[in-house]
Amino acid sequence: MSDLNAKLELAHKIAERKLAFIRHAISYLVVIIGLAIVNNLAYASDAPRYQWWLWVAFGWGIGVVSHFLSAFLYQSGSLVEKMAKRELEKMNESDKT
Amino acid sequence: MNRTRLSPIDILGITLGVIVILIVIGSVVVIAQGRMFDFRWSIPELRGSWANPRAIGGPVKEEKDEKVAGDFAEIEVRSIAGSIEISGTSAGGVNVHSVKTALFRNAADNVHVEIRKEGNRLVVEEKHEPRFFFPSGTISFQVAIPRGVKLIDAHSISGSITVHDVLPGIDQSLSTISGSVSTSRAHNLSASSTSGQIRFTSDGASLNARTVTGSIDGDIDSLDKGGSARLSAVSGSVTLNAFPALDAKISLHSVSGRVSCAFPVTISEQKKNRLEGKIGGGAASVDAGTISGSISINRK
């Protein structure tokens, strides 16, 4: 039962991470598209204008991509959890010897 | 084979992730190209860029010659990172040869040469578009000046400045931050560099040379009565080769460097790192100071 509970807990965590990423990505897209529109429509002239929204798209985008990788690629637990498991295994082995 | 099926949420998440990755890559490409001011990103233009990498990248080098007719008493040349070379010419008018270099096409388009007349002064300047935080091109100048010029005013940020083969009697004001300064024939001279070396030959009434980490190495062909030569460095050395008839009060002082003078001096104060006195009657003044560099005055 404890194994099933652990799996359920992990599945819950993964689902939460994925939903959190989807919310993050949607808000990123909405804000970036809004900034791009404001950047290019807020002026009357046709003169070339500085595309400052690209800096936001780039900077925030790195954060969203990191979020994407953590939500969809590292599904079997966080790095800390993996490392903790390894350390625990080492301790058990040293106790046996 | 055990394949897990993707749920709609997974597909949505991965799709969003791929879209964000594409936006980040696109923004990096546009920022790196320096196209932040160009809102006309038509699809054929982008397609052309991708199909032909030379349209985006590849170093650019453009040379241009411009001749400005007229008589000018003063010439001002300003660059950012490019070098400045000024020489004399027997022909009339000012010849400006500019060399523009850039990493890619858009960076080259961000910079241009501006030549304007301000009374009897001709200003040759490197001008950049007001852009933020991406590479721009560099312009180096080779300016040939005619007879009649009385003042050369040249400034750069990281480029070196060289003046050679000009007529005698021209005052010069030369400054750069990280480049070197070299002039072979100056009348009154003001030269400064932060980290570069200063080399000069002067024959006027006023000489000022300042550097921080570079050294100063100069020839004084004459120094008018009542004139002054002031030279200062921090870690660099100061070496002066003066004409034999030098007649000046001297004040040479260094914190940790050596001080020496090849002329006979009527000494008023002498310490290990300090020498004050007169050469001849003391009609002019020579003042040189360093922190750790040595100071020497040699006879030509």
How are the SSEs ordered, and which strands pair?
The complex is a heterodimer of chains A (97) and B (300).
Chain A: H1 2-41, H2 53-72, H3 79-96
Helix pairs in contact in A: 1-2
Chain B: H1 8-33, H2 43-51, H3 53-56, E1 60-68, E2 74-78, E3 84-88, E4 94-102, H4 105-109, E5 111-118, E6 121-128, E7 138-145, E8 151-155, E9 161-164, E10 171-175, E11 181-186, E12 189-193, E13 198-202, E14 206-211, E15 216-220, E16 228-232, E17 238-242, E18 248-254, E19 259-261, E20 266-271, E21 274-279, E22 284-290, E23 295-299
Q: Over the alpha carbons, how many angstroms does the gyration radius of chain B reach? A: 28 Å
Largest sheet of chain A: none
Radius of gyration of chain A: 22 Å
Q: Biggest protein-protein interface?
A: A-B, 27 and 24 residues
| Total number of beta strands of chain B | 23
The first-to-last residue Cα distance of chain A is 31 Å
Helix percentage range of chain A: over 70%
The total beta strand count of chain A reads 0
Broad shape of chain B: elongated
- Helical content band of chain B: 10-25%
Classify the secondary structure makeup of chain A into a structural class: mainly alpha
Detail the poorly predicted runs of chain B. Answer: 39-57
Tally of helical segments of chain A: 3
Number of structural domains of chain A: 1
* Silhouette of chain A: elongated
Overall pLDDT score of chain A: 80
- Contiguous low-pLDDT stretches of chain A (5 residues minimum) are none
Description:
The complex is a heterodimer of chains A (97) and B (300). With 97 residues, chain A is an all-alpha fold. Chain A is built from 3 helices and no strands. In chain A, α1 packs antiparallel against α2. The longest helix of chain A is centred in the N-terminal third of the chain and has 40 residues, at 2-41. The radius of gyration of chain A is 22 Å and the shape is elongated. The two termini of chain A are 31 Å apart. In chain A, 14% of the residues are buried. With 300 residues, chain B is mainly beta. The longest helix of chain B is centred in the N-terminal third of the chain and has 26 residues, at 8-33. The chains are: A mainly alpha (97), B mainly beta (300). Chains A and B meet through α1 and α2 of A and α1 of B.
